[in-house]
Amino acid sequence: MADRIKEAVKRFQQISLSSLFVILVSVIVMITSVVSLLIFVNLYRNDMEQNAITTSEQAVVQVKNTVFNYTEDMNDIMQMICANIQKEEEEANNFFSNLLKIRSDVVAVTSYDMNGKILKCWTNGQKLKENYIKNLSYVRDLPQEEGILNITKPHVESLFVDYYPWVVTISQNMQDANGNTIQVAVDISFYNIADYVDDVGIGQHGYCYIADDAGNIVYHPQQQLIYASLKEENQKNMENGTYIKSNVIYTVNSLQNCDWHIVGVCYVDEMITNKVERVVSSLVVILAIVLAGTVFLGSVFSDLFSKPVTSLVRAMGEFEGNSAEFVYHPVTGTKEISALSDSFEHMAVRIQKLMEEVRQEEISLRKTELKALQAQINPHFLYNTLDAIAWMCEAGRNEDAVEMVNALARLFRISISRGHELIPIEKELQHAQSYLHIQNFRYKNQFRYQFDVDEACLSYYCNKITLQPIIENAIYHGMDRMVDEGMIRISIHQSEDKIIFTVEDNGVGMTEEQCEEVLKKERSDRAGIGIKNVNDRIKIYFGEEYGLTIKSELDEGTCVTIMMPKVTEGSYEDK
């Protein structure tokens, strides 16, 4: 947690003063705008919700009044039917005939005894079936409640031959002329009510439907979807009022003359959310414009105050990137900025002086280190060579020993090179040839060697005593235990701006781990001192991208590659 805080503080400290000013002003404007937007959206949403509720209630009341008036009209017809059904048969027939002609929505008037048997039926020319399966227009145990119509659910009339109208039935019990209780049923076409309800819309997708006291649907504009279980209504145990459930607004209003309820359905997304989203989108665009204007004006005013600071920071960056050649031009501004500018100028001059002193010290240190590395090679090689000469003298090979001493003298003349670290590649090649000549005496021509040299490379310079330690390692560690004749190949070629030396032998080889270890051995180690020494000197002198790489396979041999830049006489400072 502490590391995260430190990292956050570090990132904050890297923000420029002008950016901080612009961010601060922008944040204040944004917070103020967002809070205002949230308050406005909340108030606007509440207002839209109230408007949606009012619209839904108005639509439901309108449907309720229309259905109520229609059912009251049917109730009046029922009273007229009850008053005329007991008249003389001819008079009654004339009344019903005229009624059915005038009111096309009245499908049939039927009277039943208490067992559901049809006593009389008046239709507009329709013929009764002799047998029918079920009569949905007859209601057994008809409840009697004063002022309440007994209306059935919409159903298909099944009493007539080849005629199946969609009707609701209004029923009422009464006494006939003989004092017997009969039931009078008026089948009324439901299409008029259905068409009206279908035409009522609340918003684009809202609608009204009719349900009874138990919440069962009497009529629904999307009745087919209801029957197919693709849609359902969740409004049960309805009481008058408005409810919002699951993104749906329900408005319920009951008819006073029957057990029907008019239910209005509209959607929050359509009536409220979509409108709010459109308003919010417009306000967000306005907010973005305001914020962009704030950022622009903040940037303009910020530059007036922070430009001198920015110039000073830029000067510091230039000084950091090229301190040696940096020339400072004082920055003008407020009193504080001028003081900072003067202090930075003084500091820059002082640092440049110190850098020059450090550079001179580094040059001296590098000279000392290179000399120390060179000093490691000379005693090590001298010991090995003198050991070989002593062995020849003991063996009585005096002429060979004299020739070997002469070769050693030539080798050391090149090694000394008047104290120069860099020598021509031609002399380094002669140095390697003298060394191989010396070693051939000791090993009695147990190995051969050959040179493959691009003569265009001979005039370039390299670190002295570069090849000899590599060749020495190939002889002592690569061929010392070989039974077959050894072979050493030395090649010198150029590649673009580099000189590539390779020393390859057919000795016993090394593992990958041994190759890496040779280049990592400390100077106190007996084996591999020469190779590490060469690699260290090249990297110190030319950089980490140059030096040695070793590739080897057991029982196959070893190849050491040395890479140096192309160096001409005078292009590098003499170390």
Automatic annotation (TrEMBL):
<keyword id="KW-0812">Transmembrane</keyword>
<dbReference type="InterPro" id="IPR003594">
    <property type="entry name" value="HATPase_dom"/>
</dbReference>
<keyword id="KW-0472">Membrane</keyword>
<keyword id="KW-0808">Transferase</keyword>
<dbReference type="InterPro" id="IPR004358">
    <property type="entry name" value="Sig_transdc_His_kin-like_C"/>
</dbReference>
<dbReference type="Pfam" id="PF02518">
    <property type="entry name" value="HATPase_c"/>
</dbReference>
<dbReference type="InterPro" id="IPR036890">
    <property type="entry name" value="HATPase_C_sf"/>
</dbReference>
<dbReference type="Pfam" id="PF06580">
    <property type="entry name" value="His_kinase"/>
</dbReference>
<feature type="transmembrane region" description="Helical">
    <location>
        <begin position="20"/>
        <end position="44"/>
    </location>
</feature>
<dbReference type="InterPro" id="IPR005467">
    <property type="entry name" value="His_kinase_dom"/>
</dbReference>
<keyword id="KW-0902">Two-component regulatory system</keyword>
<keyword id="KW-1133">Transmembrane helix</keyword>
<protein>
    <recommendedName>
        <fullName>histidine kinase</fullName>
        <ecNumber>2.7.13.3</ecNumber>
    </recommendedName>
</protein>
<dbReference type="InterPro" id="IPR010559">
    <property type="entry name" value="Sig_transdc_His_kin_internal"/>
</dbReference>
<keyword id="KW-0418">Kinase</keyword>
<feature type="transmembrane region" description="Helical">
    <location>
        <begin position="279"/>
        <end position="301"/>
    </location>
</feature>
<dbReference type="GO" id="GO:0016301">
    <property type="term" value="F:kinase activity"/>
</dbReference>
<dbReference type="InterPro" id="IPR050640">
    <property type="entry name" value="Bact_2-comp_sensor_kinase"/>
</dbReference>
<feature type="domain" description="Histidine kinase">
    <location>
        <begin position="467"/>
        <end position="568"/>
    </location>
</feature>
